[in-house]
Amino acid sequence: MGLPAFFKSFIPEHQPVAWQEQLRTALGAGVAILLTGAIGHAYLGDQGTPWLAMSMGASAILMFGLPGSPLAQPWSFVGGHLVSAVIGITCARAIAAPWLACGIALGLAIGAMLMLRCLHPAGGAVTLITILGGDPVRRLGYDFLWMPLALNLALMLLLALLINNLLLGRPYPARRKPDNPHRSGDPAPLARTGLTAADIAASMRQFGVMVDVSQADLNTLFESAQTLAAQRRLGQIRCRDIMSTRIATVEFGTPLDEAWRLLYTHKVNALPVLDRYRHVIGIITLVDFLKAAQLNQPARLRERLLAFLQPNGKTHSDKAEVVGQIMTAHVLTVSDQMHIVALVGLLSDRGMHHVPIVDARDRLCGMVTQSDLIAALFEGVQH
Predict the structure, then answer these.
(1) How far apart are CA 318 and CA 216, in angstroms?
(2) pTM of this prediction?
(3) Is a pLDDT exceeding 70 seen at residue 380?
(4) In terms of C-beta density within 10 A (0-12 exposed, 13-18 middle, 19 or more buried), how is residue 198 classed?
(5) Cβ-contact 362, 277 below 8 angstroms
């Protein structure tokens, strides 16, 4: 490596972050520190401000600039501070020379944070504060853990949760990947081929150094890159290009026997449930009928199904009479403009068999099934 390249390596790679995101990060961190400092000052007076500035500022950069980082998660933030503070106070009392106490305390704090899975850069600052903070910190001793440290931690964590989730639209804490919906215990379909979570974990271990990105985020980035690559290979095939448009539908008040006849007549396994504006409010499937009729005795299946579908003619009844009483509500819908690659995960790992397609006004305009998607992917690969 030549000298210019060596010095060039000092500068980190450019991060493709929009200026709007940079502005939101700066404002979020600034507001959090402002409010934490103001409330801390009201309780502690001027002496609380230095402790806030030296510790919480480093935390704010992580919690608002890198909210998905393992170093920025709530346990890392709270545990890293408290563990480091305890070690710092203990070393300050046991070792007379500040420079010696700082070195030993910092090494012990980092080791403890690593073992407890709460590594947090601001923990190093707290360790030094408890040793070099002067008489005010020395007089407090272990009371420093409760005031001002516990107050600062509680305020900053609350503000990080509120600002990230409600104002900035970021998930904090970082969301973990949902469990496999397949009860068989087998990996989800997409996890059986290509790169798996185990592959990512093994690669991170072989990397040799800590990576400031969670395994879940790495997996999300990889899946996103795969999706973009698939879209490039398949071309611009939208849901509207492959969906079925002549589909049978029902309403909330459609009698159950009528919905059953539609399923049988059209030879389909699901019917979208619409309101008067053609918005999807639910879906009713064969599984919904089986569950509602409690058909768990095969020998009496026909009799029980007929009894369930037969209207009782009463004004009030505990027995389900209409579609809305047994349908699956809160159905996931997909825009007709969405690329078909987005359907792969829904119709495989999510266990869905039918996806209602809606237009720009959120009205039902079609349906895509697993067979529709398979045919479209095969056609796209052939070309």
Answers:
(1) 46
(2) 0.58
(3) no
(4) exposed
(5) no
